[in-house]
Amino acid sequence: MRLEYFQMLDRIVDVDVGARLIRTACTIPKANESPVFEGHFPGYPLMPGVLLIECMAQTTGWLASALVNFDQMPILAGVKEGKMRSAVFPGDALEFEGKVIHEGSGFTVGEIKGLRDGKTVCNAQITYRMVAYPNPQFRQAIRDWAERLQFPFKEPVK
Amino acid sequence: MSTTFDKVAEIIAETCDIPRENIKPESHAINDLEIDSLDFLDIAFAIDKAFGIKLPLEQWTQEVNDGKATTDQYFVLKNLSDRIDELIAAKGA
Q: In this structure, what CATH number is given to the domain that contains residue A35?
C-alpha cells in the first residue's frame, strides 16, 4: 500500500466473476513510511476513513472491471451507508470482501466490507459510472496494474 | 388503495427530495423533474424492492440509444407505472 500514490491494495486474493465476488488484501504502512500520518494525526497516526472508502472503492472497482473484461472503467459515482466501525492504525493487515449487486444502464453497484482479523472495520455500498477508457494505452496501464496486484486473469484480456 | 403511480411518486419524492405535489402522472422524470441517471438508479432500486420486480434498465437504455423507444415510454411516470404493472403481471403469470 502506498497511500500517497493511491495504491491502496497490495493484492487481489480472489475474483469469482460468476458469483460476482472479490477479495483483496493490504497492510497499512507504518507511521514513518507515509507522510499521510504526519498530518493524520501528529503524534497519533490513524488511517483516514476517506482512504478506507478508497480501499473499498478500488476493491469492487476491480470486480466491476473484470465483469466487463476491462472494456470499460469504473468511476466512483456514489457512496452510501459508508461506515467506519473501528479505528485502523499503521501496520494493520486488512482484507476486503466485495460483491456486485447491480450491473447495467451505465452503472455498477457493489457492496463491500473491510475486515481486520475477521472483524468488520468498515463497509459501504458503492456506485460506479462505467465509462470508456480515454485511450488504449490507459486501458493497458490499468490492466498492467491489475497484473501487478496478481489479478487472476483466467484468459487473456484483449 | 394506493396505485402504482402513488407508490412511485412517493419513492421519487423521498429519494430525490422533490415535493410530492410536483410529481404528476404526466411528469417526465428527466425532463420535468430533472432526475439524473444516478438518482434514477436509486429510484429503480427502491421500485424493485417495493414491487418485488427488477426494472430492465439496461434494456430500456439500449432501446432508447438504438432509437427503438423514446424516453417518454419509460420515464413519463404514468408510462413507467404501466411498465411496472406489466412486470408485476408477468411475474405472477
A: 3.10.129.10
Fold type of domain B4-92: 1.10.1200
DSSP secondary-structure letter at B21? G
> Per-residue confidence of chain A (158 residues) as pLDDT tens digits?
999 999 999 999 999 999 999 999 999 999 999 999 999 999 999 999 999 999 999 999 999 999 999 999 999 999 999 999 999 999 999 999 999 999 887 899 999 999 999 999 999 999 999 999 999 999 999 999 999 999 988 754 44
* pTM given for the model: 0.86
Mutation target vs A (from B30, B35, B38; most A CBs, 10 A cutoff): B38
CA–CA separation, A73 and B35 (whole Å) = 24
Q: Structurally, how many domains does chain A consist of?
A: 1
- Containing B83, the helix (H) or strand (E) segment is helix B77-92
A81: contact with B, CB 8 A cutoff:
no
Per-residue pLDDT, A158 = 47
Give which of B57, B66, B75 to mutate to test A binding, by max A Cβ within 10 Å: B57
Rounded to two decimals, the ipTM of the complex is 0.72
- Test B41 with A104 for CB contact under 8 angstroms: no
Q: Is A24 on the interface with B (CB under 8 A)?
A: no
Domain limits for position A12? 3-148
* Structure-derived torsion over alpha carbons of residues A142, A51, A8, A95, reported in degrees to the nearest 10: -120
For residue A25, the distance in angstroms to the closest alpha carbon of chain B comes to: 29
Domain membership flag for residue A95: yes
Q: Is B65 on the interface with A (CB under 8 A)?
A: no
Give the domain ranges of chain B. 4-92
- A109 touching B, CB under 8 A? yes
In degrees, rounded to 5, the angle at the alpha carbon of residue A88 between the alpha carbons of residues A76 and A75 is 5
